[in-house]
Specification:
- Helices cover 36% and strands 19% of the residues.
- The protein is of the alpha+beta class.
- The strands form seven sheets. It has a six-stranded mixed β-sheet. Strands 16-17-15-14-20 form a five-stranded mixed β-sheet, with helices on both faces. Strands 4-5-8 form a three-stranded antiparallel β-sheet.
- The protein is globular, with a radius of gyration of 21 Å.
- The protein starts with a strand and ends with a helix.
């Protein structure tokens, strides 16, 4: 059995997966946190307790109580989530989450020094944390999965290049940009050693076994960010393939032979475990906007009512919080709702459609940058559990969509653990064996045409507000004229 652990925004999930991809055991535990405007924090100790609970449930639910034992495990976390720890790995700060936006000034300073970062990336957030009063000199930059792995192994371990990307790591040169970091007043000793995803980080120690039940000696494999983990779980690992992860927010990840160059830094490139490049971007829109607008809603009931509102009387760009990162960079962007929904169902429909419009704009932006899109598109993430929303998004995009049998990031980490432990010669081979296709969705041309006008109206509004650059808006309009339903 292979174990994957996913440190999500709202919960920690652990799965045990067999060589054929069958999920043999699973466990989950909720996570809380603090949101206040651009502030978003969680307690690292809460991550650990939730991970212990999820792992314990997965082991207990497995056949024969987890026998045969776990052969290897890997951990993914939210991209850009970071904290400071002391020399023994104890947390000195809260975990600043992937969308915490307090480090605007630090990001601007880093860009002046030649580092293309966004305010929500890990590097400016570390700079912000270091400026807080009372910091001791013995501090270490620690990504979210590093904190859990160090508890399992019993010592500080290297980080993986996927999580290090938003901390400024140079993937092309496989090194930290030490000159630029020194120019920012950052000590090189602050930064961990970096290895490629799939590398061996260490083995579960006696303390890790006592805390979780995972046998001591179990290999711990370097993971990737949650978006990349979902991409692995989708099986979309061929050049030109893309995976759209719809959870609290929306993340698109693809596969290219060469990096996708974006001077704005909106699209960034991860390095695949066995070569190649995984470009993508993380938007601020997503299912989290549904929970904010309808905290006590029954999603199934509102999904059933939504088809009567196609398109909605209102037009939404449903940001979960202030600021947008993809398909355009606008730190001051706010959730947008134009028009007055007639009913709650109409409002719900506007939010669902708004995510679909944002998703289409993301793909248009990738096309604007020259990223290939000739491979399959897959849907994963919690939002993909809604059959209605899946078909709605398919129709808005006007292209066929693959729905994997299992799509969660934790499964992707189990696949990566199998590859890293030598069970398959390539990651694609491991995914081919362990990832299955559920079904394929085809777009309805009539519905695609119906949603074209509100999509273009949204493009116009985003451009009018100064958030969406004019060349990108023009490309989206031109592509709408040229794109045929596939």
């Amino acid at each position: 059995m292979w174990m994957g652990i996913d440190l999500g925004t709202q919960s920690v999930r652990a799965v045990l997966v067999g060589d054929d991809g069958e999920v043999l055991g699973a466990g989950a535990a909720p996570l809380g946190g603090r949101r206040d405007g651009v502030r978003h924090e969680q307690s690292p100790d809460d991550w650990w307790e939730a991970a212990r609970t999820a792992i314990g449930e997965a082991l207990k639910s497995a056949p024969d109580g987890g026998s045969p034992p776990v052969r290897a495990l890997a951990v993914c976390g939210t991209s850009g989530t970071v904290l400071l720890t002391d020399g023994r790995g104890r947390p000195l700060t809260p975990g600043l989450m992937y969308d915490d936006g307090r480090a605007t000034a630090e990001a601007a300073l880093a860009r002046e020094r030649g580092l293309r970062v966004q305010p929500t990336w890990a590097l400016p957030k570390v700079m912000w944390l270091l400026n807080e009063p009372g910091r001791t000199p013995d501090v270490h930059l620690t990504h979210q999965p590093d904190f859990i792995v160090s508890r399992l192994v019993g010592r500080r371990t290297p980080t993986d290049s996927s999580h290090a990307l938003k901390t400024g790591y140079d993937l092309s040169g496989d090194t930290w940009p030490y000159d630029e970091l020194r120019a920012l007043g950052l000590d090189p000793g602050l930064f961990p050693e970096v290895v490629r995803p799939g590398a061996l980080l260490g083995e579960v120690g006696a303390g890790g076994e006592s805390a979780t039940g995972i046998p001591a000696g179990t290999p711990v494999i370097a993971g990737m960010t949650d978006g990349c983990a979902a991409q692995i779980a989708s099986g979309s690992l061929g050049v030109g393939s893309w995976n759209s992860v719809l959870g609290t927010t929306l993340v698109l990840k693809g596969v290219t032979a060469e990096p996708v160059h974006d001077s704005t830094g909106v699209v960034y490139n991860h390095r695949a475990p066995d070569g190649g490049w995984l470009p993508g971007g993380a938007s601020g829109v997503g299912a989290g906007a549904l929970g904010r607008a309808f905290p006590d809603a029954d999603p199934a009931r509102l999904d059933a009512l939504a088809p009567a509102h196609e398109p909605s009387t209102a037009l939404a760009y449903p940001l979960v919080a202030r600021g947008e990162r993809f398909p355009f960079l606008a730190p001051d962007a706010t959730p947008l709702l134009l028009g007055e929904p007639r009913t709650d169902a109409d409002h719900w429909a506007a939010l669902l459609q708004g995510v679909g419009h944002a998703e289409r704009l993301c793909l248009d932006y990738l096309d604007h940058l020259g990223a290939p899109q000739h491979g399959p598109l897959t849907f994963t993430g919690g939002g993909s559990r809604s059959a209605y929303w899946n078909q709605l998004r398919t129709d808005i995009l006007g292209r066929s969509v693959h729905i994997p049998r299992h799509s969660e990031p934790a499964l992707g980490m189990a696949v990566l653990a199998a590859y890293g432990a030598g069970a398959a010669p390539t990651l694609a081979d491991a995914a081919e064996r362990m990832v299955g296709l559920s079904h394929v969705l085809r777009p309805d041309p009539a519905r695609t045409a119906r949603f074209l006008e509100p999509y273009l109206r949204m493009v116009d509004e985003l451009e009018r507000r100064g958030w969406l650059p004019a060349p990108v808006a023009a490309h989206a309009r031109a592509r709408a004229d040229d794109l045929e339903v596939s």
